[in-house]
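Subject: Interface between my chains keeps coming out wrong

I've been trying for a while to get a sensible model of this assembly. When I model each chain on its own everything looks fine, but I need the whole thing in one frame so I can look at the contacts. Pasting all components below, labels as-is. Any help appreciated, I'm running out of ideas.
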Amino acid sequence: MARIEIDGIEKRFGRTPVLRGIDLDVRAGEFLSLVGPSGCGKSTLLRIIAGLTREDRGTIRLAGASVDQLPARDRDFAMVFQNYALYPHLTVAENIAVPLVMRRLTAAQRLPFVGRHLAGSRAARAAIEADVTRVAETLGITKLAHRRPGELSGGQRQRVALGRAMVRRPKAFLMDEPLSNLDAKLRVEMRAEIASLHHRLETTFVYVTHDQAEAMTMSDRIAVMMDGTILQIGTPDEVYADPDTLSVAEFVGSPKINVIAADADLATALGLDIGRVPDPQGLRLAFRAEAVELVEAAGAQLSGSIVHLENFGSDLMVHVATATATAPLLVRRDPHDPRPRIGETWGLSIRPDRLLAFDKAGRRLRSVVGGRA
Amino acid sequence: MSRLPKLPRGLSVASVLRNAALIALAAVTLAPFVWMVATSLKAPDEILTRDFHLWPHRFWAAENYASAFAAVPLGRYLLNGVVVTATILALQLLIAVPAAFALSKSEFRGRRLLFGAVLFGLLVPYHAIAVPLFVGLHALGLLDTYAALVTPFAISVFGIFLMRQFFQGIPGELVDAARMDGMSELAIVWRVMVPAAGPAISAFAIFSVVAHWNDYFWPLVAVSSDTLFTPPLGVVAFRNDDAGTSYGPLMAAATVIVLPLVAAFLLAQRRFLEGIAFAGFK
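Reply #2:
Try treating it as a single job with all components included. I did that and got this:
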């Protein structure tokens, strides 16, 4: 368990800047997700932390000491990859044992045939075997120990990859989209399993994903990345309810946040205090689907006709086309409430305290606060 | 309207024609070998006769093979052949595998240029540089040694190219995982890449062994003492040694020389075909 301090990391591939000065402090023992659309630089950042890619500028400290000069194998991190990256010619047990074999046995002891009979080799190998068995039991893959990766399903392979990472108690786990090759159901299962693994091991986790739902459900903190910079770092609640920029608000949360362009009059009518905004030009308001309700159209500040209904069983998503927004606005509704019908016209009532205001450049206007209408 | 005769299930005119063509081709290819083996079994007066028969009337195998082994140290030549081809292959792999790994999975300046040099090397047949090689070995005083037979082939650009192409298909994540697991770059080569590259290695081994076992040109240039003769040289030495050309023992010697390759092929038939398919299509 160790703190990882990332300071001013820059990286270019050829002329393209991939990371533009990343500062990030990963606390000891926390589960931090790097989340962002593909191409935002999150995987590159993880590879730089791991020591697999060299940064152009900046420094990385592990537990206070710089690791910039250390190659990947000396940094004592474990990494889990998207494509599992298991050794195809080794069995499950041998795969899990590799990090221990490489670290605990001397080069001579690793030699085929001869190595087994050298001094200390037998005891070290027995200890490795015990550790591998223990990890396999934890992950429920004991029965697969003698199979090869080619004979396993995706979920089983990912479990083996986790086992290989866990077996030597590294200073931190680095995970690069480990669940994105699994089917939806298995992904949800593994999400819970990785989160509980983090609780049990109490080790630092840095988890890269493009799936905001994974980041939201597993992390202590989330760092939202776009175009090589970190836009916001915070707990899932902070990032969801209190975003710094419109891009973060739009990236985090499913369904996507509703955005409308608003002039000063509409904003005021919706219950916002915009007196302190110097330039109300290009003002945009955003609100989540659960912060808005369907009401009688008459007298409502916003109204529109229903174009689509999505029934999730637990929720009903109502898509309302309005004159103010180009895309239909989403309204979450209890499926047990009276159902609106497609084509009907309804008004929208937004909770003013959940309305977020952004300026022309997409920066949050925190001075604009809604009161109770 | 003519109707084709009805053929049994699974047989079509096309497949019959195709197989007939293949059989004809196989017959043409095999005929010299069959003739070689048949001749090695015949008595001298039966070999150059006007009447055509494959199977000997008088069985002369023992005499032919005995005189083949008696006239020249055929065993010694075979041993030389094994030593030379095995050493060449071992050195080639020892050099080509790490080189291919570097060209495929390491990032360094000039990598593309180096790979270009490898491709360029593929274009140059070794016969073209035989004279400089000969002069170089002469200057080093290595002519007429095992080293002269082996060293010119220790670096195989074909091997580097073949391995590099295969390594391109191995995901980079696997190499990264090995780095995270604590392997050095050389450990990755021998513990991860080599086990994964089985088909490429066997394909290359086949090409290398066949080429150097059968090579006549370079041993002829490089060595002169007959203790260093490889099998192809041995056959020729055999012909020169004998006053009259006695074809029976000559063919017996040729059969003995071909035998190891045929045996190796029969033992590893599947790998052999896989290897050729791999090298051909990849």
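Reply #3:
Confirming on my end. Chain B touches chain A at residues 171, 173-174, 176-184, 187, 192, 195-196 (CB under 8 Å).
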